[in-house]
Design goal:
Phosphorylase Kinase, domain 1, two-stranded antiparallel sheet, 2 domains, 8 strands, alpha+beta
């Protein structure tokens, strides 16, 4: 097991060596024939959780961790709560779903490097990066954020016991927009802004946190829409004007669009594409340039007219058909959200709908 502590800007590659017999025995217990079999296709679902848990437990002493609990699963890996035994610090551990002989090819390392470079209250701190076995799955030690993600909040609705009010949600989105602006000014992109990647700390004095930053990928690296997992982001938060230019799906403009689509989801209870139905129908609507814009993206004024003129105007501008009519920066969107919040009473009782948004 190799570990690299994180300072500021980079994560150094870890040395590699043949898999050790003890690690191999753990993997074979869960059906893997070699470390090469540690791939998303063979490690999804409960089997993947067990395999990742077993590797963490195998290395628990060397990693200085205990109190391991599964928390969630994403496209790149599994997330656990744990605690650094020697100092009692709670941490989140993310274990990658794929094994890489060369850590420089590891998307988890890209995420860790990106977040380590962005020292900002709304970006989680990164403590360490390493591999759970030589040439095996990687891990990140991250700051533990005690609080739900925005997707879970929206699924429960504002009437759920202990649910944050609309103001807290809007403040969180404004804070996340400022974090995106902070990254953009430093040449870093997020690539997958959506409710599931926004955490609302239980301590309301803390700002919202945007996790899973994907860094600046070279333009042109992605394949055609829907053809490759290399295309960043989630369909429901993609800009329809960019789906035929996949190299632009990972750009400042696409981050701003995803922020706007997330705001729409929070206020309207559905994603901008939800009215198209299934995933296949939503993807078809994304691709269909012949559809009128208000048929592709249903106007917020039709979905939630009760929002009032100011919020509807923000959504209309943020999701305008012509890119030049939209917000030119994440900071501009944040400024309008802040101006709206400044115009409201500290708690005006506004609510948001209970919904089942795509994460």
């Amino acid at each position: 097991m190799h570990s690299t502590s994180i300072d500021r800007a980079t994560l150094d590659p870890c040395p590699v060596a043949p898999a050790d017999p003890q690690t191999f025995s753990v993997l074979t217990r869960y059906g893997a024939t070699s470390l090469d079999a540690y791939r998303p296709s063979t490690t999804t679902g409960p089997q993947g959780w067990r395999m990742a848990s077993a590797l963490l437990e195998l290395n628990a002493r060397a990693l200085d961790i205990d109190d391991l609990r599964p928390i969630g699963e994403g496209a790149l890996g599994w997330v656990f709560f744990s605690r650094q035994r020697s100092i009692g610090r709670p941490i989140a551990i993310k274990v990658g779903k794929s094994a890489f002989v060369d850590p420089r090819q590891d998307p988890l390392r890209v995420q860790g490097s990106t977040m380590a470079r962005l020292v900002h209250p709304s970006v989680p701190r990164v403590y360490a990066y390493g591999q759970l076995a030589p040439a095996g799955p990687s891990y990140l030690f991250l700051e533990w954020i005690d609080g739900p993600d925005l997707n879970a909040v929206l699924r429960s609705g504002s009437q759920a016991p202990g649910a944050p009010r609309q103001r807290r949600v809007l403040e969180g989105l404004m804070q996340v927009a400022m974090a995106v602006e902070f990254g953009h000014q430093r040449g870093e992109l997020h690539g997958d802004v959506k409710p599931a990647n926004i955490l609302l700390p239980a301590d309301t004095a803390r700002p919202a946190v945007l996790v899973d930053w994907n860094g600046h990928e070279p333009r042109g690296a992605a394949g055609a829409l829907g053809d490759s997992p290399a295309v960043m982001g989630s369909w429901d938060y993609w800009d329809p004007t960019r789906v035929h230019a996949p190299d632009l799906l990972h750009s400042r403009e696409s981050d701003i669009w995803a922020l706007a689509a997330t705001l729409y989801s929070a206020l309207c209870g559905v994603t901008p594409l939800a009215h198209h139905g299934s995933a296949e129908q939503r993807l078809a609507a994304l691709r269909d340039g012949a559809l009128a814009w208000d048929q592709r993206i249903r106007p917020a004024s039709q979905v939630a007219p009760q929002l009032g003129a100011r919020l509807l105007a923000i959504l209309e501008k943020a999701l305008a058909e012509a890119p030049e009519q939209r917000y030119g920066s994440a900071a501009a969107l944040a400024a309008d959200l802040q101006a709206y919040l400044d115009s409201c009473a500290p708690d005006d009782g506004a609510t948001y709908p209970r919904t089942t948004p795509r994460s």
